[in-house]
Amino acid sequence: MQRHVAILGAGPVGLDAALACADAGWPFTVYEAGDTVAAHVRAWGHARLFTPWDLNVSGRMRTHLPDAPTGDDCPTGAELATRLLGPLAALPAVQGRIRLRTRVAGIARTGLLKHEHIGTDTRAAALFSLLLDTPDGEDTAEADLVLDCTGTYSHPNTLGRGGIPAPGERALADRVTRTLPDTGDAGRWAGTVLLVGAGKSAQTAARDLAALPGTRVHWAVRGTAPDWGAVPDDTLPGRQHLVDTSRVLADGANDRVTVHTGAHVQALSPDGDRVRACLATEGGPREIVCDHVVALTGYTGDASLYRQLQVHECYATGAPMNLSAALLGSAGGDCLAQPSVGIEALRNPEPHFFILGAKSYGRLNTFLLRTGYEQIDQLAAAYAAESLSRCAAESSVSA
User: Fold this and answer.
1) CA-to-CA distance for 11 and 79, rounded, in angstroms?
2) Which pTM was predicted?
């Protein structure tokens, strides 16, 4: 039986999955909510990756696109999209299989509710039913195998204490920037900026905003003594540069940047055309009237897509339980040292449904593109072996 595969998301991992399906001869459709492939990548196109081309191009991609970039240069998101992902989507093996501006709104097992036929062959044999939002209205589709590669960038975390929205945040949602600022237009960020977050996106924003002479930055960091995610003897120069820059800014080297440690946003409120932010900080309460609020407190995937499926999520990370357990059990927080977990860690209680790519890591921030490509390798190998086993069993019966 040839499986029809539904691939959700036309980012790097989704496109690599499409190539794997093409290689295996499996019919597939890629559903992409954006106007173009790699929509999330293009959204942070002005930022540069820490990892070089050789870690961002899979072996499968290079086979299909021999002229794909190579070497130790670290691409920007725009370069990754235009020099790799766009050309991949235009290949004959993939072209015509991608439905743009088509968002998967929900996934179910045809004829079955979430609690029915737990762990049975009946459930495994039932087709998946997908509800689609398309430019022409709602539509439906079916699939035997579903790969959720939708990523996380369109689902930012809020900036209040404990992860819930701060009072006033929802009412001022249109005044809060939750994506990495593009500082190419310096005038766009003139005035006072409240920046919240301490991860690599926030560090990148702090570095870039600090370079703008017309910008004053108040940087709210939750930790009282942040280590800025430093990795001993870091082999990724770009990542180490961000750590070094953050330390310099925290030490007060730039008089237009104030770093507030042990800080969280207690409330936001309008102040004319500006926003008044009440902060609790290590040094006491602070009130800041700002022109811009930039909330870079991380991203998590949209779990509502599969709320009618039997997915066991980790109560701490939000990632699939088996994968989360494997990752939490490994030592260290360096993304380059992530373990190869194998296909069993990727499986969910829901047969033939997989969460892959950045979304599969939940709240863990150690995902690399090469990890997503390894996930596709493991899945393709497992299903190829399953197909061979089925063919051998059918031949034995026929004999």
Assistant:
1) 14
2) 0.93
